[in-house]
Design brief:
The structure is a homodimer of 200-residue chains. Chain A has 200 residues and is mainly α. Chain A binds a DNA duplex (30 and 30 nucleotides) through α3.
DNA sequence: TTACAATTTAACCATTTGGTTAAATTTACT
DNA sequence: AGTAAATTTAACCAAATGGTTAAATTGTAA
């Protein structure tokens, strides 16, 4: 059965994604991944030698999702405020489709014994945002702020609700649909904050 | 040796706190806690019957820290903006002294098999903030916003940097002292955002 | 049909881990 | 000194878990 070599491999990866994203590394069991993929443990190890290998494979995929390129935003014609507004919209939509992403990446990176994962962090995102801010500051198009503080704030306002999702749902008596609605409404809300904060 | 019954118990709790906060439930080992407390596993189980009991003990302590009462803030003479500003200062200072607190509480609550912990969430904090917002909105002292969105934003701006601390340190080339400095500077920064967002 | 790769089955191994037990030892208090 | 509680030591258990192995079975392609 050589037909679709990737078929089983894909099933494994899809299953591993779900398990790892929900339970993290130490909370995940290889048996659970095999079960969810509809295969057995022997075959699982036949495809991926070890839990570590499989996990790193998933993590690599996820970290690039967490820090997307978003090249279309970084157009010289865009103002800093427009770039941030675009980022807010794109990023919240991205996270709505991948709600477990932030907690997964951040808990993984926080594990003291896996600091090697830190090496995979990109830095271009923050640097490019800073450059655009400095440009618009010089043009008098934005108010003066500490740009790193502002960027981390925008990031936090987008990301935090997904990490605190169970808390939010409980405290505001929301179900999953209402949470999605809440996050959709959040896009113009946060964009509004940024305008008020930055516009001179 | 009846002298200080609490002495060993306190050593255990202090050790359990450090281990659990850093590694979470499934990442923590009873042996590590015993080692850090300077005792052996037998004695550890002599004081706390099981890992679950010990963990719940720690979690209860921590969740009340995560959602402090801050009664002094909720004074009728304070404006909503003053209340938020006070909250930002108090909360960031609290987290500076307990940097692992947010990730610990949130990851614990997110574990699907421990949803019982959700029951321990308070709701008074959000409700009281909402009441003060509505009052000041009626008085024309604040701009119109979706108050739940605003409150979660303030929360996120305070909490998120601590959860993403290793990422932030890496991306901005900071050491621990510089991170502390960054968070200290963050207090007036976020307070400034709130004023710009809310003042009519 | 043959040959080879994919898959299953099932037993097995070594290690880790939460937890127990019983006996010995130390400590404090009377 | 005697007693009871605190602590240590060390062996032990059972379950969970990552990983291996070998043999059998199934599917595919030549």
């Amino acid at each position: 059965m050589k037909e679709e070599v990737t078929n089983t491999e894909e099933k494994i990866l899809a299953a591993a994604e779900i398990i790892f994203l929900q339970d993290g590394y130490s909370g995940s069991r290889m048996q659970d991944i095999a079960d969810l993929a509809g295969i057995n443990k022997a075959l699982l190890h036949y495809y991926f030698r070890s839990k570590d290998k499989l996990f790193e494979y998933i993590f690599d995929k996820k970290i690039s999702l967490m820090f997307p390129k978003m090249e279309e935003l970084f157009d010289e014609n865009n103002s800093f405020i427009e770039i941030l507004s675009g980022f807010i919209e794109n990023y919240i939509k991205l996270l709505m489709a991948n709600p477990f992403l932030p907690l997964f990446v951040i808990t993984t990176i926080n594990k003291s014994d896996r600091e090697d994962f830190l090496e995979k962090l990109p830095i271009f995102l923050k640097r490019r945002l800073m450059e655009f801010y400095q440009r618009d500051l010089a043009l008098g198009k934005v108010r003066k702020h500490h740009p790193a503080q502002l960027i981390i704030s925008v990031f936090g306002m987008c990301v935090f609700p997904f990490m605190a999702k169970p808390m939010l749902k409980k405290m505001s008596n929301m179900n999953d649909e209402q949470f999605q609605e809440f996050m959709k409404e959040r896009i113009p809300e946060v964009q509004g904050y940024i305008k008020l904060i930055l516009e001179p």
